[in-house]
Amino acid sequence: MGCAKPHATHWQDLRSRPADLILAQPGVAPPARGAGFDLTFLTSRYRVDPEAERIDALESPVEILSDAFQILLLSYLVAPHGGPLSGEAISEKELPGGATFFRGPHALPVQEVVARYGTDAAGFAARARFLGGEPLDHGDSAMRFRPFPSIPMTYILWQADDEFGASMSALFDQSITRWFALDAIFIMAGEVSRRLVDPR
Q: What's the CATH architecture for 89-197?
């Protein structure tokens, strides 16, 4: 169950948005029964009920949803529709303002993924496939995820060898800034990284 609560203004923003615009977001649908909106993150489904101010995991009802993740889901529901992909993959530092934002405490949270899979590219690929990732031909293993249906991101892993330590980089379609501000992109990457490392 979703235990943590986003701020009241997040819920008010959702209630103020016309339902037809919310349902136009890729991956969002009305529930078969009950109120609210169902949406997809990676391979999981969630129900957001703006009147009850509640978010539930549909497949895993004991899943604890962090404050940040709940805010991310709400942000997606009220985001301006980002339109088609640009087809240009860029790093977080190439996003407008990214070179300043994505450093220090806001550096993309990939180090736990590197620590887990730095010598296990096959294990990284297997876990990524379980989360809906698609393989690409980069590095020792590269996987493209769809956290939300129209928002791809790619993790590229270089395994450790005798000369260099393991490393990982992330790429985003340039269109992502039409959907999300930088802090939401940071939260999204953090949730993808967490699910790669934590099998629960």
A: 2-Layer Sandwich (3.30)
